[in-house]
Fold this protein.
Amino acid sequence: MSFILSKIFWFLAQPGNLFFIVFIIAIGLLWTRWRRLGRRLLVALLAFGIVVAVLPLGQWLILPLENRFPQLKPLPNRVDGIVVLGGAVNQFVSRARGQPAVGGSAERLVAFAELARKYPAANLVFSGGSGNLFRQDIKEAEAAGAFLKQLGLDTARVRFEARARNTYESAVNAYALVRPKPGAVWLLITSARHMPRAYGLYRAAGWRIVPYPVDYATDGYFRLRLRFNFAGGLGGLGAGLKEWIGLTYSYASGRTARWLPGPE
């Protein structure tokens, strides 16, 4: 039930969708006795649109998340296992087109393949099913396996966990799949902005995990760079808000021990 509610909530709270919903309400109010409220809502939407288009709000939200965990340098001498989270491949387009359709988070799988070659004895796990509310029939693990083959990785080494619909289920399901031994060194690969939430959920599930953040969207510094890009601003704002809302929900629901997990 929580998965369904989270999808419905994010559909309504996503900045682009919320902007459109409020716009429709404002236009409708213009034809009623609450027309003054409708006009005020339209002015507020215009101001919001200008701010989003000009200021890098999304980058400001993402920056502290990406800086939360440092890059893993130097690499450890021994690695017993590597887990990579899904979210890099569109399994529906991949199935329809007959070839892997990779998105903006492809660095996750590229880093996974590189580390797998560096540590040939490490256990490998890909965790990712389908986060689509209405399409649970096609899993990302299928498309990810095909892309990893293109990267030259022997997928016979990889255990594919294809039931997870979100990061919480990924942490629980992957742990049940491999049962990591005490003292084992496991790396966790995901996007840098997603790492605080993923790390917190994996730690709460019982993992002793070492973060390996990739797929950065910022340069690591707070900057005031004015531009005019409404679509890009909405996209960045949505990406940042999704992580902060996810962190808040994970902590409030008891799925993580800290609101903003960090290095230990």
